Automatic annotation (TrEMBL):
Protein name: Late embryogenesis abundant protein LEA-2 subgroup domain-containing protein
Gene3D superfamilies in the record: 2.60.40.1820
InterPro entries linked to this entry: NDR1-like
Signal peptide range in chain numbering: none
Compartments reported by the entry: Membrane
Protease is among the record's keywords: no
Cellular component GO terms held in the UniProt record: membrane
Taxonomic path: Eukaryota, Fungi, Fungi incertae sedis, Zoopagomycota, Zoopagomycotina
Keywords for the protein's UniProt record, in alphabetical order: Membrane, Transmembrane, Transmembrane helix
Membrane-spanning residues: 21-48
Organism from which the protein derives: Syncephalis pseudoplumigaleata
GO biological process per UniProt: defense response to other organism
């Protein structure tokens, strides 16, 4: 065994240097970081917007159709029910709807609704204004013939509503869309 020296006492009395991060040990920093990530993950899980369930309830005629050989114009209100599964209510700045003929996929109308409030965990009915306006290429245009058949023989026409929502606070990154099949008829 080596004899003790003057310096051996000084070496033993030096404090052991431990690594640290922000005045606490690295283990505590890692645990805090993991807890923060778990908290952010849980918050996103509960607050991330889920697409609501949209049900088509019916169509009301607002203005009787104007029909001639080259154009068709009518105004309708589509009644839709939106079931919001989210834990946070939504304020919809704008909802744009486009109406397409289901057979030919031709754009036949559009509409816009503004300032809609969708409460959390609730079903709400909304009225979407739709203007069906189609300018044809003459009386031989097949789309004009299909639209005319709505009122003259009274044949319902299958159509599709495609809508997009501008949700307040999310519209710069996320704009939910939905499509619903409807039937356009003429007032009796």
């Amino acid at each position: 065994m080596a004899p003790p020296t003057i310096f051996s006492y000084q070496e033993r009395s030096k404090p052991v240097h431990r690594r640290s991060c922000c005045c606490c040990t690295c283990l505590v920093c890692v645990i805090l970081f993991v807890l923060i990530l778990v908290g952010i993950g849980l918050t996103l899980f509960f607050l991330w917007p889920r697409i609501p369930d949209v049900q088509y309830m019916g169509l009301q005629t607002v203005k009787a159709p104007e029909i001639n050989e080259q154009s068709f114009r009518a105004s309708y209100n589509a009644i839709v029910q939106i079931k919001n599964p989210n834990v946070v209510g939504w304020t919809v700045n704008r909802m744009e709807t486009l109406v397409y003929d289901r057979t030919t996929d031709a754009l036949i109308g559009n509409g816009t609704a503004t300032d809609l409030v969708i409460p959390k965990k609730e079903a709400t009915n909304f009225t979407l204004p739709i203007d069906v306006r189609y300018e044809g290429n003459g009386k031989d245009d097949p789309e004009i013939s299909r639209l005319r058949a709505i009122c003259l023989p009274g044949t319902p026409m299958p159509a599709t509503i495609k809508a997009q929502l501008w949700i307040k606070g999310l519209d710069w990154i996320y704009k939910p869309k939905f499509n619903k099949d409807i039937t356009i008829t003429c007032p009796k």
